[in-house]
Design brief:
The protein is α/β, with parallel strands linked by helices and 248 residues long. The protein has a single domain (9-239), classed as NAD(P)-binding Rossmann-like Domain (Rossmann fold), CATH 3.40.50.720. The chain contains 7 helices and 7 strands, in the order E-H-E-H-E-H-E-H-E-H-E-H-H-E. Strands 3-2-1-4-5-6-7 form a 7-stranded parallel β-sheet, sandwiched between helices. Helix 2 links the parallel strand 2 and strand 3. Helix 1 (18-29) packs across helix 7 (214-224), helix 3 packs parallel to helix 4 (107-135) and helix 4 runs parallel beside helix 5. The longest helix has 29 residues, at 107-135. The chain is globular. The chain starts with 8 loop residues before the first strand and ends in a 9-residue tail after the last strand. The model has no long low-confidence stretch (mean pLDDT 91).
Length: 248
């Protein structure tokens, strides 16, 4: 399917690896210029090279930035806008918080998770609306977690911080419904990323385990950024291979 977004521009948080990178790859294949924000210069360089090999006509921009705090997000956004004139697509993605249950975690842990997975993402949204509203066309997609739908006992920080962002995105979808900007979240289940490998502490994937492909996930996000998805707004799309049990 031709997604009709060739020539659009996307800003992608955490775009140097994992689900963020695969989202960038899917968008580049559709002819979208992408700007990647991540903390590690070497990973950004590797991502830049890999994406450049897909298309010579698409512009790839990288920005070294730390999205673990609202201030860091604002600085990263400012740096990005020094290199690009604006953007039409914003993909919200940040590193997942550490695991732990209620008894294990401190208030400082909760504050840190909220800074990284909620408030910093809000800072990116607020800093982007002027650009998106000007064109009367925009896509904001947040990569969250299926734990928003079915909280896991040992993933309390992810459960709570990503629920906050999901609620914020739903609120924004109503506020800007007539502006041409859509706000949706994608809730990944288990995908074979470095994040999953770290959580499993080296435990290999068994043949009977149903774990998703990051590349397939990126294509789902790309569709939500498409022209065809213009009437999908305020939705939370689960991409978990059927692992969750809830109806919604």
């Amino acid at each position: 399917m031709e997604l009709q977004i060739r020539g659009k521009r996307a800003l992608i948080g955490g775009g140097s690896s994992g689900l963020g990178f695969e989202t960038a790859r899917a968008l580049v294949k559709e002819g979208v210029d992408v700007t990647l924000i991540a903390r590690t210069p070497s990973k950004l360089e590797t991502a830049h090279q890999a994406l450049s090999e897909i298309s010579s006509s698409v512009k790839i921009t990288t920005v070294v930035g730390d999205l673990s705090s609202p201030r860091g997000a604002q600085v990263a956004l400012t740096k990005a806008l020094e290199s690009i004139a604006g953007f039409d697509i914003l993909v919200l993605n940040s590193g997942g918080p550490k695991p732990g249950d209620v008894a294990d975690l401190s208030l400082d842990d909760e504050q840190s998770a909220l800074q990284t997975n909620f408030l910093s993402m809000v800072a990116l949204i607020k800093g982007s609306l002027d650009y998106l509203e000007t064109s009367c066309w925009g896509r904001v997609v947040a990569i969250t977690s299926f734990y928003v739908r079915e909280p896991a006992e040992n993933m309390v920080l992810s459960n709570t911080s990503r629920v906050a962002l999901t609620a914020y995105m739903k609120s924004a979808s109503h506020t800007y419904a007539r502006s041409g900007i859509t706000f949706n979240t994608v809730q990944p289940g288990l995908h074979l990323t470095d994040r999953l490998r770290n959580l499993r502490k080296g435990r290999p994937v068994r043949e009977d385990e149903h774990i998703g492909s990051p590349e397939d996930f990126g294509q789902v996000v790309a569709f939500l950024c498409s022209s065809q998805a213009g009437f999908i707004n305020g939705a939370s799309i689960v991409v978990d291979g059927g692992a969750s049990r809830s109806l919604q």
